[in-house]
Write a structure and sequence with these properties.
The protein is mainly beta. It has one domain. Strands 1, 4, 5, 7, 9, 11, 13, 15, 17 and 19 form a ten-stranded mixed β-sheet that branches. Strands 2-3-6-8-10-12-14-16-18 form a nine-stranded mixed β-sheet, with helices on one face. Helix 3 packs antiparallel against helix 4. The chain is globular, with a radius of gyration of 21 Å. It starts with about 60 loop residues before the first strand and ends in a 5-residue tail after the last helix. The N terminus is likely disordered. This is SUF system FeS cluster assembly SufBD core domain-containing protein. Belongs to the iron-sulfur cluster assembly SufBD family. InterPro entries: Fe-S_cluster_assembly_SufBD (IPR055346), SUF_FeS_clus_asmbl_SufBD_core (IPR000825), SUF_FeS_clus_asmbl_SufBD_sf (IPR037284), SUF_FeS_clus_asmbl_SufD (IPR011542).
């Protein structure tokens, strides 16, 4: 384990001028990264003082991670140590916390879906990650490897309390598909920082969803890379931030080969209480899509919409599109932060629906566009129930 006493190198290679967003420095060694500061671009929204030392090495001695797997037929589950050749293939940590997690986990979980297998078609494979407990810290690492021609659905179910940092790898082979949902329903004190790395083969399909409903601070960084033509990645997200909660998603879709498709759609709602002693409800979304010079025929779009339900809430939304070739099928992005759609509200009320009920229907419809895209029915139902529970506490 790398400790807080590690001497930082005199030369910081990640401070070089970047050719593009995909050229960001990465390393498995925590010593290669300086301690994050509030003025650093990649940390400028994050409340560093609330991370319980995950970012600067002061988090203390870690407890063992509690990671349980409910597997399905066609899935092999392996528990391996650091240094196993199956680790680190999808991507390398791009920040200090992710490198600290890679240097500090006790045991990694590797899920291997065999060639041509169908896993989780009815009930998804569930990886249940439980926090170490209030005042404690733990680190984890999960690899989901879907072989060529195989299909799998996996839920990463985060729960409990304490501070937790992890890396998750998704390897999707040629003509394979993976549906994965990262669902965070943490206790109120929890802090979770997670780096996701997806690597897609020829004609591979990744359906990736991040859902945030609990915790004090949750920061998820998905990165997707295409390695051969025909890849298709859909990155979805839903989040509902209450008073005292901070949720951040900072993603990159890296188109480096021709004729791949990506679609990004994240939607969030926020409710706060300006009279409480808790920090305001806060979210930050940064979406980067890079189309490299050799990625002709790319078709991509990214969307982030945020619904402010009360005072005492703030959402930051930063979509970025970097294009190095004009030979593309299509590219675009959009982002909004606002309140209710008054036209929808008027339409419902004009048909006799009470205003309070109409407002809740508008919020459910707002999230429904994302949730209906998730192909696993049990996950759709669970997310709908979580949104209903949030709405039950809102005075709209």
């Amino acid at each position: 384990m790398t400790t807080a006493n590690t001497v930082e190198p005199a030369v910081q290679p990640h401070r070089r001028v970047l050719a593009n967003k995909g050229d960001i420095f990465s390393s498995f060694d925590v010593a290669d990264f300086p301690v994050p500061k509030g003025r650093d671009e990649e940390w400028r929204f994050t409340p560093l003082r609330r991370l319980h030392g995950l970012h600067d090495g002061t988090a203390g001695e870690p407890a063992p991670a509690d990671i349980a797997v409910d597997a399905a037929e066609g899935v092999e589950v392996h528990r391996v140590r650091r240094g196993d050749e199956r680790l680190g293939r999808a991507g390398t940590p791009v920040d200090r916390v992710a490198a600290q997690a890679f240097s500090s986990f006790d045991e990694a979980v590797v899920l291997e879906v065999g060639r041509g297998a169908e896993a989780g078609a009815q009930d998804p494979v569930t990886v249940r990650i439980t926090g170490p407990g209030e005042g404690r810290v733990a680190y984890g690492h999960v690899v989901i490897d879907v072989a060529a021609g195989a299909h799998a659905a996996v839920v990463l179910d985060y729960r409990g309390s304490g501070a937790f940092a992890d890396n998750v790898e998704f390897l999707v082979g040629d003509a394979a598909s993976l549906t994965v949902v990262s669902l965070g329903n943490w206790a109120a004190d929890a802090v979770h920082l997670s780096g996701h790395h997806g690597r897609l083969g020829r004609d591979a399909v990744l359906r990736h969803t991040v859902a945030c409903f609990g915790g004090s601070v949750v920061r998820v960084i998905p990165r997707v890379a295409f390695t051969a033509p025909g890849g298709d990645a859909e990155l979805l997200g839903v989040y509902f931030a209450d008073d005292g909660q901070y949720f951040e998603q900072r993603l990159l879709v890296d188109h480096a080969v021709p004729n791949c498709r990506s679609n990004v759609m994240y939607k969030g709602a926020l409710q706060g209480d300006p009279d409480s002693r808790l920090p305001d409800a806060r979210t930050a979304w940064v979406g980067d899509v890079l189309i490299r010079e050799n990625a002709g025929g790319t078709d991509t779009y990214e969307l982030n919409r945020n619904l402010i339900l009360t005072e005492g809430a703030r959402a930051d939304s930063v979509p970025n599109l970097e294009i190095e070739t004009g030979e593309i099928a299509g590219a675009g992005h959009a982002a909004t932060v606002g309140r209710f759609d008054d036209d929808q509200l008027f339409y419902l009320m004009s048909r006799g629906i009470p205003e309070e009920v109409a407002r809740r229907l508008v919020v459910r419809g707002f999230f429904g566009e994302v949730i209906h895209r998730i192909p696993v029915e049990s996950v759709r139902d669970r997310l709908t129930d979580l949104i209903d529970a949030e709405l039950a506490t809102v005075e709209l």
